[in-house]
Here is the input.
Amino acid sequence: MDVSQGKKRVLILSEGFGAGHTQAAYALAVTLERRCSHIETRVLELGSFLHPTIAPWIFHAYKKTLTSQPKLYGKLYRSQYKKSLNRLTQLALHRIFYAQTAAIIGQWEPQAIVCTHPFPSVVVSRLKRAGLAIPLCTVITDYDVHGTWISEEVNKYMVSTEDVKNKLLGRGISEAQVEITGIPVHPSFREAHDKAIIRQQFQLKQMPTVLVMGGGWGLIGGHSLSEHLMRWRDHIQFIFCSGNNERALAKLAMDTRYQHPNIRLLGFTDEIGKLMEVSDLLITKPGGMTCSEGMAKSIPMLFYDPIPGQEEENLHYFTQHGFGEPIRSADTITNWLAMLAGRYTDVEAKRARIPLK
Here is the structure.
C-alpha cells in the first residue's frame, strides 16, 4: 500500500542562485510535513533538475558577476526594481522550462505549488495563464520585494515583514493575497542542543567563538576582513565555513595563517544551526536566509560586503531592529572581539538568557 495515498501534495520549486532560496524551500517542506501529516512535499531546483549540465554554468556566471561587478548588478537591480521580468527573459524561461515543467506538474498532480525564487514563479504563472488551475504561492526570501517577484497569477505571497507586505500593497496586490510568515527556517534552528556534544562533534574548545560564513562565494581568504580576524586567533576560536566551494576550502587549508589550533575550516554542512549555537558571534554577508537563521538562533551578527540591492535592504532591516551591525571599519571588528575575549563569561551568560526566536 502506498503510504502517501490520500495525502495533499505540495510542489515546492526553487533555483540555485545562492543557497538561500533552496534552503527556504526545504525548511518549508520539513515544517509542512511535521505540522500536517496529511501533506506530502517535493522540492525541486527547477534549472538543476531539468538542465543539470547547463545550470551549473549559469550559476557560476551569476556568482562571477556578483563578486567581480557588484556595482553593475546593483545598477541593474535598481533600474528594474518596480518591473516584472522583461518579455525576452520570460520568453527564454518559457522555451527552456515550459513543457518540462508542465510535464512534472502533470505527473505529480500537486494540489498547490510554492515558489521560493522568481524564475519558477514566472514559469508557473505562464502555465496558469494557459489554463493550469492550481493555487500558486510565492515565498519572498528577502527583506525587500523586487518587481520580478510579482505576477498577477500568484494567489498568495508569503513575506518576511510588515514593510515587505506594504510594498506589495503599494504595487496593487490585495491585502488578502499577502501573509506575513517570516522567511522559512528549518525547525532545528528553533531547537536547543547540548553545546558540549556539539563541541565534541566538531572538535571545538569552550572559549570565545566566532562563526564566519560567506566562503561559498570565495569571499573569505582574500578579504581584508581575514587580516583583522587572524590577529585574535590566540584568544578567540574561529570557524570558517566555505559551503560547497571546495576550491576556497583547499586554498584556506594551504594558507599558514589558518593552520592554528583555534581555527576550524569546514566545507558544506547541514548543521549550521549547531555551529551557531556554540558560537558567540556570526560574521556573514547579509543574505536573507542566513540572517533569518541567525535571528532564530539569537546570535549577534556582523555584516560585510552586502550585494547592492536586496542584501543592502536585508542589512538595513537587521541593523535597524538591533540584530546586528555592518562592519564599517576595522574598529567594528576590534570592539566586538575585544569584548568577547575580555568579557566572555558575561557574553555567554547574556546569550543563554535570550530565548530562541
Q: What stands out?
A: Residues 190-348 form a domain with the Rossmann fold fold (CATH 3.40.50.2000). The chain is about 45% helix and 15% strand.
